Amino acid sequence: MLSSTEFIRQSLEIHLFFARIMKEHSFFLEVGFTPKDSIYIKQANNFRIEFDRLLADTISLSNGAVSPSVLQSGEVITPFTLKAEMASAYFTGVNIPFNLTKSEAGLMGSNASMLGNPIIEQRVCTLNQRALVLIKALAQFKTMVLSEVISCKMFTSSYPLLIDHILREAKFYFQIIQRLQNREEINFEKDMYVQESFWNRIMAEHSKFIRGLLDPTENELINTANNFGNEFDKLTTESKEAMDNIIPISKVTQDSLTATIEIAKFKSQGTQGLLECKIKSIIIPLLADHTLREANHYLRLLKIFTKNK
User: Fold this and answer.
1) Which one of 57, 110, 248, 256 is separated from 130 by 20 to 30 angstroms, measured CA to CA?
2) What InterPro entries does the annotation carry (predicted)?
3) Treating both helix axes as pointing N-terminal to C-terminal, what angle do 249-275 and 188-213 enclose, rounded to 10 degrees?
């Protein structure tokens, strides 16, 4: 059974990462709809606001309660996040609350006295329950949108694969919080297979989205993104083979670590290039920073898996 200390720490760390991811998914959906679908725009905006609130409450509980390694990993915010939010708010007219990012920049690492507090534990438990309801509702919304798009009843600038991609992330977030609410201990060996299979696929799809959203004249970047897509497709297959004991997981983990270091550099350079108006694309800056944070999250996990082998 998960200890009180670990329950608090792991719950808050997951929300710091995933609540921001969910609010941005809602934003991407919102700006991808056409004026005809104003009802869907409003629904997506409401989800974005609710996840803003969830993230705000998570931040208020997190100071002194989360690992310094998480805060330093670049998965909570990156050096580009605030500028990416400002640029994306300017381009879309959506009111993004920059104060959340500024608050996260000031968070401090864990303090033992915070982690043993039963009042904090109860507040985190309530936060988790609220998150489960909200994530489930957002997943249902994404499912409905995907169904409308693939049946040609709706047009959106979001790829059908992207909607499916963000739906899988919502379900993954839900499962993690559900496990934490049940106070389940993490089995590192078992979790390693699941996480690597999941995130390698996510990295492959990021590469393909980037490839498809770059201007056709950006040949070098398109080729690089395409190569990353092929590499992570291969790693996704190998992750599944490791689950079936066809190949050793240690090799997949090391290869995934090497590839993720490289794609994180690519995404970092890309985000900076977009913000400096040096890359021609239809990539909104916050989407670039979003994919970078997911790579940083996966990178931190891979380093843990490497140490725990």
Assistant:
1) 110
2) CotB-like (IPR021328)
3) 40
Residues in the chain: 309
Widest pairwise Cα distance in the chain: 57
| Residue 204 and residue 124 in one domain | no
Residue bearing the bigger pLDDT, 249 or 129? 129
User: Does 239 share its domain with 264?
Assistant: yes
pTM for the whole structure: 0.96
E strand intervals along the chain? none
Looking at the DSSP bridge assignments, the partners of residue 214 are 281
| Rounded-to-integer distance, Cα 248 and Cα 162, Å | 31
Query: Residue 269 sits in a domain of what CATH number?
Result: 1.20.1260.120
Question: Ramachandran region of residue 184, left (φ > 0), alpha (ψ -120 to 50) or beta?
Answer: beta
> What does the alpha-carbon distance between residue 249 and residue 175 come to, in Å, rounded to a whole number?
23
Q: Tell me what pLDDT residue 248 has.
A: 86
